[in-house]
Amino acid sequence: MLYGAEHVKRYIETNGEEGHDWQGTTTLILTTTGRKSGKPRSTPLIYRTDGDDYVVVASNGGATEHPLWYRNLLADPEVTVQVKGDRFRARARTASEEEKTRLWPRMAATWPAYDEYQTKTDRSIPVVILQREK
């Protein structure tokens, strides 16, 4: 099973032939800029589309802290996204409460553990919208 750095490596090397379809769902590669290091940081994330946008969830498995990639994009919302062989610049933003109310059920249908993760933490798990730069 692909996970973490190996997932990113295989995904990039194969333009998503390995790694896009993962455990019954689909993943993209999100590259943020490290808020302390300034270095690119790539993470495989489950996604769904919403119109022209891509949607991911900053669940961190229900941990009390936001995932590092989410903290990085709060510091610098300019990111790179790869979906299969399509690599593009995007602007990341946290979904509004109204957007989250609409998008959360779709994301939880894709990965049911999201609902479980939310019960494990007091933080409101963010839904993130990735908007392709024109």
From TrEMBL:
Alphabetically, the GO molecular function entries are:
coenzyme F420 binding; oxidoreductase activity
Reaction(s) the record says it catalyses: oxidized coenzyme F420-(gamma-L-Glu)(n) + a quinol + H(+) = reduced coenzyme F420-(gamma-L-Glu)(n) + a quinone
- One matching Pfam family, short form? F420H2_quin_red
According to the UniProt record, one GO cellular component term is:
plasma membrane
- What top-level branch of life does the organism fall under? Bacteria
Instruction: State the family named in the UniProt similarity comment for this chain.
Output: Belongs to the F420H(2)-dependent quinone reductase family.
Q: What is this protein called?
A: Deazaflavin-dependent oxidoreductase, nitroreductase family
